[in-house]
Amino acid sequence: MDLVQAIVLAIVQGLSEFLPISSSGHLVLIPHFLGWPDQGLAFDVALHLGTLAALILYFRGSLVTLLRAWGASIVQRTPTRESRLAWQLLVATIPVSIVGLLFNHYIEEHLRQPLFIAGTLTFFGLLMYVADRWGRGGRTEFDVSWPEAIAIGCAQALALMPGTSRSGITMTAGRAFGLTRLASARFSFLLSMPITLAAVMYTLLLKSRELSNTMPVTTLLVGVVTSAVFGFLAIRFLLGVLRRTGFGVFALYRVLLGLALFAWWGLRPH
Fold first, then answer.
1. How many domains is the chain partitioned into structurally?
2. pLDDT beyond 70 at 212
3. Which one is predicted more confidently, 110 or 184?
4. HSE on the CB side for 42, CA within 13 Å?
5. Contact at 8 Å (CB) between 160 and 104?
6. Distances (CA, A) of 170 to 22, 87, 155, 240
7. What is the pLDDT of residue 140?
8. pLDDT digits over 244-269, tens only?
9. Residue 197: which domain range?
10. Which among 89, 123, 153, 172 is least surrounded, fewest beta carbons within 10 Å?
């Protein structure tokens, strides 16, 4: 992989990780249609180090508050709404951790295909529109019950399928449970931090040789920094859109892209 390819993929990762349009799907589609070799799941996960940094930077105030409350709930046994949310985020990470450990290899080998991504983009795009259109609640992330938090965590596990979108499916679940658009986005972003950190550590510790054989370290670092910059911009953009309107534009994009992929598949020579 050369530097240009790494930068392009990093920009795609930074933008699509937080916009509910599926970063994994786009990271498969872009190389496929540009004639590049599939960069592999290890590089995709490594780019998450940049988007994780963007998340930590943007939500640093909330993150410090949650960590302090979580620590106090252990040491001083003083539960608060912040400590309750912190525990919910940790417990809700368990489903995707289990599914990832069990099916990661199968997903990488069999599901990184344009036709499969067309289906997940379309189906979950329509589901997002329905949940946003009829999700009329005004609840915040601090109003999420334990069963709802676990259900959103299970929804996050579905995002291991390329084309689903981790942010998209968790925000969809949040809207279905009556969270406001901004609250569903905040819960989704905070929920992504533990599993993203775990995935990045796993990749860097156990697959560093695979990455070093694929590209120079400097190319990887440029990719990580690029994904961080564009990830930060994507968070600001999404929250700005949600303050003014809803998820409709993203649902429309997903459906149109999915239908275009179906049309391409039907017209291509077999």
1. 1
2. no
3. 184
4. 15
5. yes
6. 12, 17, 6, 18
7. 96
8. 999 999 999 999 999 999 999 887 76
9. 3-267
10. 123
Give the pLDDT score at 211. Answer: 67
Map tokens 């601090």 to a residue. 142
pLDDT, tens digit, for every residue of 23-33?
A: 989 988 999 88
